[in-house]
């Protein structure tokens, strides 16, 4: 008998749309100077982001109506793995953009395969953990190894782009799923230490990463180079005060913060909307994470629970890193703020993942909740 499904989590759905709307508005405000300077129109980024946002909503509605058990199909996961790996390799056939090879396609149609990899690793690990069961997951060779191999392939290819920040997010989300899935603490500690050593090695082999770390330790020592972005971000947040300068009245977006509509859009938001605005956005992300965890806890089967946790973890980890970077609690790294920052493929696949989360919410148990 076909399982009866209920309505989607309306609180989560409304919260996603609120964040998306804030993102489109802030992209418009933050990008006006750059759009005017390089493309002859202050509406350049607004138009593109609005198109991606519309496509994102369509994709979210589409995936929210596909039974989440569809994604545990062995053939789909096998084909998906091959496609994602080939896409991650194919980026090296395209010319670099600002020193990195992260995109496929040209012009408006560019996508980042690493964004697909984030969602795929959640689906793959959730299915693997569910099928192996808690006993096998306690074993390193019989339980953890297949998932670690897939994760290592993705992480290795993405670091090569280079894109250390996305690699760390994928690894972190994978560790969360493996730990919740039943992996032994001793293995998780070992993997954590190995990951720290790998990140340290990746920083040491690339001079620009090491300069960023040194700049983070004391940004004022080199305020025109390694410490520049961190200092300008703090200027923006600090000058916003309680209520902000007002929407559209940021000073830092006038070429003080490079590409203010991307990684540092939260700084512009703080400058224009003040502490009240930033607090509201953080509350919205907290609601999203709360509803995601609620869905994971109350899902009727382990696969759905793990997928819900994985997708929620992506949002939680990525948004937390962005908040820490713009407030200078972490070294500067290229992590966008989900649903808020400018970016087509990032927004599209984030919305696809949230659609899957909404679909899982249709099948959760209501006992003892709300």
TrEMBL record:
Statement: the UniProt record of this protein carries the keyword Cell division: yes
Stored InterPro entries: FtsW, FtsW/RodA
A single GO BP: peptidoglycan biosynthetic process
Coiled-coil ranges (or none): none
GO CC annotations on file: cell division site; plasma membrane
Keyword Lyase among record annotations: no
Pfam families (UniProt xref): FTSW_RODA_SPOVE
Entry function: Peptidoglycan polymerase that is essential for cell division.
The protein's name in its UniProt record: Probable peptidoglycan glycosyltransferase FtsW
Origin organism lineage: Bacteria, Bacillati, Bacillota, Clostridia, Eubacteriales
């Amino acid at each position: 008998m076909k399982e009866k499904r209920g309505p989607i989590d309306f609180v989560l759905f409304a919260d996603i749309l609120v964040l998306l709307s804030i993102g489109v508005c802030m992209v418009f405000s933050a990008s006006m100077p750059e759009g005017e300077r390089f493309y002859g129109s202050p509406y350049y980024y607004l138009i593109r982001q609005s198109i991606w946002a519309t496509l994102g909503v369509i994709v979210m509605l589409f995936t929210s109506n596909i039974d989440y058990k569809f994604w545990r199909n062995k053939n789909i996961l096998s084909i998906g793995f091959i496609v994602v790996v080939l896409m991650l390799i194919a980026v090296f056939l395209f010319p670099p953009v600002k020193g990195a090879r992260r995109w496929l396609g040209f012009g408006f149609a560019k996508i980042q395969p690493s964004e697909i990899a984030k969602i795929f690793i959640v689906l793959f690990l959730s299915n693997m953990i569910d099928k192996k069961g808690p006993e096998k997951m306690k074993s390193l060779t019989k339980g953890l190894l297949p998932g670690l191999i897939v994760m290592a392939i993705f992480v290795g290819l993405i670091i090569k782009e280079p894109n250390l920040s996305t690699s760390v997010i994928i690894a972190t989300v994978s560790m969360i799923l493996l730990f919740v899935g039943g992996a032994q603490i001793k293995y998780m500690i070992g993997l954590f230490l190995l990951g720290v050593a790998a990140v340290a090695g990746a920083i040491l082999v690339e001079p620009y990463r090491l300069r960023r770390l040194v700049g983070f330790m004391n940004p004022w020592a080199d305020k025109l180079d390694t410490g520049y972005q961190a200092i300008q971000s703090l200027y923006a947040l600090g000058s916003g005060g309680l209520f902000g300068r007002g929407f559209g009245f940021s000073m830092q977006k006038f070429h003080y913060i490079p590409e203010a509509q991307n990684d540092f859009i939260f700084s512009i938001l703080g400058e224009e909307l003040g502490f009240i605005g930033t607090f509201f956005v953080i509350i919205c992300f907290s609601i999203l994470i709360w509803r995601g965890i609620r869905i994971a806890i109350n899902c009727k089967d382990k696969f759905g629970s793990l997928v819900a946790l994985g997708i929620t973890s992506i949002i939680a980890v990525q948004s937390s890193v962005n908040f820490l970077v713009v407030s200078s609690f972490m070294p500067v790294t290229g992590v966008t703020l989900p649903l808020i920052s400018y970016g087509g493929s990032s927004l599209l696949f984030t919305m696809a993942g949230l659609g899957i989360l909404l679909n899982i919410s249709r099948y959760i148990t209501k006992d003892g909740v709300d």
